[in-house]
């Protein structure tokens, strides 16, 4: 049994001759993308050749840039011929064993000199140098392209950041963003573009973007809306996280248009929104507040009663803001001049609201 195991192990560990040969040469270059391997060990092994012991010499690298030395095999190889030579050009410098005849290495008619004079080596050297030149051009082209690309990304980020900051400013200050006319010659282009123009006066990147191609400005109404949506989404998810962490705070979450205005339709809509944002209401909803309209506050079938059916702890209280409104209206009614003034304002509002229909 032991023997069998050893056989299996040796079967799987056995290397084919070509692979073994390649592994023996593993300490010299593997591909044309490498550089000639030219090690400088303290001592090169000495072998008896002719009348004395001789060894490879590191100084030969200075004369022959193509020369590679394998420390494993103690042999010399030609980098150019191995990676850039034509197929079927046999030479000892491309063979697996390599060149080892150190005695003849620097002979005038042998060794390195003879190899260098060969047509195959000359072609290989030309091909190698051409490859290096192309690589250099490609590298410099790539570096230029990368630099330009990174610059464009950085500039677009600066510009988008400025656009987002202006949108955030106008939104938090509650001032309108768009102008009635936004062309360059318009008297008032709106707050958004006017503030961006001020920023552009102090930043050439923003200035170039605003005066550049139309699709790079990021100022269109569509982009504004997309950015506002993104900003709103960030704020909304932060509110939802707060709610989930059970922080008690009053926050505005969402506007939703109602298709049906009856109690059932409005209840369904509110529950849909709570579910959409993953807010657990059946056990965590502890309060609801609306105005006193019976569709909302109705004791038996108003929205509050319907929601309380599914969320048992959602107690209804009359909306505080609405109570204050009722108090103010009653107070104002007690002052004839104020009542007259607010009635006029209301009349004006109704007239303005309806005037476009008349026109
Ligand atoms: Zn060669």
Automatic annotation (TrEMBL):
Domain of life: Eukaryota
Feature: compositional bias, Basic and acidic residues: 22-33
Residue stretches making up the TTF-type domain: 52-144
Segments for region (Disordered): 1-49
PANTHER family with a match to the protein in the record: OS05G0311600 PROTEIN, PTHR45749
Protein name: TTF-type domain-containing protein
